[in-house]
Amino acid sequence: MRSPSSQLSRIVVRGRLRARTRERGLTLIELMVCMVLIALVMGAMVFGTGSLSTAKLKKTASGLTGMIKVAYTRATATSRSERIVMDLDNSTMWLEESDAPMLVQTKDLSGAAGASAQTKAEQDALAAGQAAIKGPNIPRPSFRPVSTMGVGEADGQPKGPQHLPEPITFRQVQTAHDDEPKIAGRAYLYFWPGGLTERASIELRIRKSVDDVDTQTLMVSPLTGKVTVKNGPVKLVLPTDDKSASEREDRGGF
Questions:
Q1: What is the extent of the structural domain holding 208?
Q2: Residue 161 backbone class (left: φ over 0; alpha: ψ -120 to 50; beta: rest)
Q3: pLDDT tens, 168-195?
Q4: How many domains does the chain have?
């Protein structure tokens, strides 16, 4: 028969074990709650970062749309040729102007579409192209950077090329004088007096993402200069020699 002191000891031991079990259970619950809270915070951070990048993508598309409108209006108001230069390697863009009239031809080997070559690669390509063509060389108009109506200026002072905000970059650019979309180097979008520009597709993306959801495309109408912003990449469809296509009116859309 067990003594009262032995029974009391067993009761005390059992009580301590139960207390430890309860403490161990509470600690596990607290750990689970902490993990849930951390997951919620991390999810909110990721979602917030994605939303911020998407907002910057839309803002950049809006800013480039404004630059296109300025170039289109300025070409008509000043009777000078304008162009927007987009440096795909450095994610920069700026507006340039020429005093001399110019023409843009397709399959221009210089990549500068009828203008004086700027980069070393353009100069080499231009020299090779001219060497293959017989006849006198026609002087090409030169362009200079301009600052106007908030484009290319800060507080009214020239500031040089505009950098796309992080993490926005150019995915690719194609204009009417390009045979293929440009994914590197410089791309040019031209504007002429009288209200005329080039049909163009300008794709902006978040970092170097290849997901369509991270891309917005600016489609430029050649006759009106209207810009239509679409989600995802949009391939540029160039006019053909087909009669029905040539007679189709350009209503500023695609």
A1: 53-101+161-247
A2: beta
A3: 999 999 999 998 999 999 999 999 998 8
A4: 1
